[in-house]
Amino acid sequence: MTISYNPSKDEMLLKFGPAKGRPTKDLGQIKLWWDKNNNIRAVAIKPYQEELEKFERNLGWVNLRGIWKGIEITEEDIREVRQELLKKLEERWEKW
């Protein structure tokens, strides 16, 4: 596996194996190469610096989609669910 960065193109390339020719799938900012067995051979991210800044800015956030779209999960929700899980674990532990 190799990772390379081309500053003139602002492109980061992660290669898992040989990737020749044009990308198999071009998703705009992300390009993918895969082989005939559908194994991913390489991933290119362009513009890398912009994507990296976006990733760092949104670290700890998850974009909810589908049926979860528009729902906000608060710290209180997380605390309540953790307490419920802790109670269930304690109950199971007592059975042992």
What's the SSE blueprint?
Elements: E1 2-6, E2 11-15, E3 25-26, E4 30-34, E5 40-45, H1 48-57, H2 75-95
Antiparallel strand pairs: 1-2, 2-5, 3-4, 4-5
Q: How would you describe what is shown here?
A:
This protein is α+β, with helices and mostly antiparallel strands. It has one domain. The chain is 32% helix and 24% strand. It has two helices and five strands; from the N terminus they run E-E-E-E-E-H-H. The chain has a five-stranded antiparallel β-sheet. The longest helix has 21 residues, at 75-95. The protein starts with a strand and ends with a helix. The mean pLDDT is 89.
Q: Which residue ranges are poorly predicted, with pLDDT under 50 across at least 5 consecutive positions? A: none
Total count of helical runs of at least 4 residues: 2
Dominant shape: elongated
Biggest sheet features: 5 strands, antiparallel
Strand content: 15-25%
Terminus-to-terminus distance: 46 Å
**Strands, count:** 5
Give a summary of the structure in a few sentences.
With 96 residues, this protein is of the alpha+beta class.
What structural keywords apply?
alpha+beta; 2 helices; 96 residues; 5 strands
